[in-house]
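can u do me a favor
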C-alpha cells in the first residue's frame, strides 16, 4: 500500500499576464506530483489522463522517478488562464477536455489517502468518491467541481452533490470564494463549521496572503501566510498547499504543524514559475525563521 495517490488531469496551460505569455503543463496532478517528488517521498502514485500532446510531460515525470498510471484520453485538458495586474484574479477558458476518471481506473490502486484534484465539474464519475472512501481516506480540492464548461467558457456553479458526497470526504480544501459558494457563508469559521456538519473531518480554507484556517475535531487552527521575497507566479499555490498538508499529515503531524508547513511550501512556490522545486528542509527553514521573528 502506498501513502498517497493523487488523481487528476495534467493540463496544457496557456498563462497570460500583463508581462508575458507562456505554455506549460499544469493542473493539480502536475503540481502535486512535482511537489511531493521534491519533498523526497517515494510512496506516491499519480493517476492521470492525457491526450497524445502531453505524453512528453508524462515521460519527463516518469524519468524523474514519479510513478504514474496513465488513463488514455483522446484529448488533454487545455486551460487558458489570463491574469490581470491583481494576481489573485484570473479569467479561464477551456479549449479541450479529457476523459473522466472512473472506479475502473482506481481498482488496482491501494493508498492510505486519495487526493482528488478536480479541475472541472465532470472530472470524476459520481460513484468514485464513495468507492475510494471504502479503501482509504479521501482528500478533495473542490475547485473544479464548481466550474462548468459551456462552449469554451467557464461558469461558476454550486456542487449539486455536496450534501450527498461530503460525508465521504475526509479532508476538504477550499478557498475563500469556494467556501462561500458551497455554504452561503462569507465568514471562514462559520463556513468551516457548516462543512464539518455536512460530514468532513478536516476542513482547510485558504485565503491567499491572509493565511488559512483549519477546522478539525471541533477546534480551529489559524495558519499564517509567510511573506515571499517576491511574487512571480500564483498558479498552483493551492495545489502546493494540499501537497504539503497531506505530506505532513500522513507522517503523523498535527493540524497546526501540517498547516504551517503547507503555507510555507506555498510561499516558496509563489516565488518562481512552475511547481515547487525545493526541498523539505527549505520549507522547514521558512517556518523556523518566521517563528524566530
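np, heres the sequence
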Amino acid at each position: 500500500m502506498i501513502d498517497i495517490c493523487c488523481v487528476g488531469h495534467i493540463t496544457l496551460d496557456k498563462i497570460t499576464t500583463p508581462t508575458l505569455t507562456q505554455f506549460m503543463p499544469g493542473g493539480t496532478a502536475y503540481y502535486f506530483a512535482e511537489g511531493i517528488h521534491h519533498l523526497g517521498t517515494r510512496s506516491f502514485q499519480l493517476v492521470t489522463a492525457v491526450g497524445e500532446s502531453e505524453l512528453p510531460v508524462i515521460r519527463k515525470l516518469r524519468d524523474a522517478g514519479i510513478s504514474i498510471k496513465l488513463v488514455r484520453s483522446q484529448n488533454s485538458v487545455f486551460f487558458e488562464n489570463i491574469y490581470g495586474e491583481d494576481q489573485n484574479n484570473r479569467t479561464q477558458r477551456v479549449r479541450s477536455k479529457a476523459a473522466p476518471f472512473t472506479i475502473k481506473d482506481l481498482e488496482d490502486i491501494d493508498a492510505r489517502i486519495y487526493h482528488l484534484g478536480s479541475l472541472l465539474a465532470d472530472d470524476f464519475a459520481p460513484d468514485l468518491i464513495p468507492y475510494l472512501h471504502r479503501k482509504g481516506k479521501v482528500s478533495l480540492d473542490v475547485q473544479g467541481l464548481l466550474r462548468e464548461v459551456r462552449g469554451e467558457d467557464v461558469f461558476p456553479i454550486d456542487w449539486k452533490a455536496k450534501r450527498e458526497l461530503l460525508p465521504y470526504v475526509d479532508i476538504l480544501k477550499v478557498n475563500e470564494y469556494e467556501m462561500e459558494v458551497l455554504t452561503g457563508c462569507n465568514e471562514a469559521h462559520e463556513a468551516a463549521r457548516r462543512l464539518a456538519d455536512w460530514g468532513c473531518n478536516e476542513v482547510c480554507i485558504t485565503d491567499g496572503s491572509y493565511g488559512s484556517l483549519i477546522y478539525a475535531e471541533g477546534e480551529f487552527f489559524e495558519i499564517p501566510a509567510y511573506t515571499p521575497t517576491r511574487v512571480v507566479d500564483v498558479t498552483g499555490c493551492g495545489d502546493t498547499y494540499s501537497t504539503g498538508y497531506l505530506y505532513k499529515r500522513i507522517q503523523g503531524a498535527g493540524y497546526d504543524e501540517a498547516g504551517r508547513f503547507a503555507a510555507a511550501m506555498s510561499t516558496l512556490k509563489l516565488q518562481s514559475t512552475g511547481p515547487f522545486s525545493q526541498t523539505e528542509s527549505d520549507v522547514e527553514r521558512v517556518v523556523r525563521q518566521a517563528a524566530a521573528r
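The chain has ten helices and 15 strands. hope that helps!!
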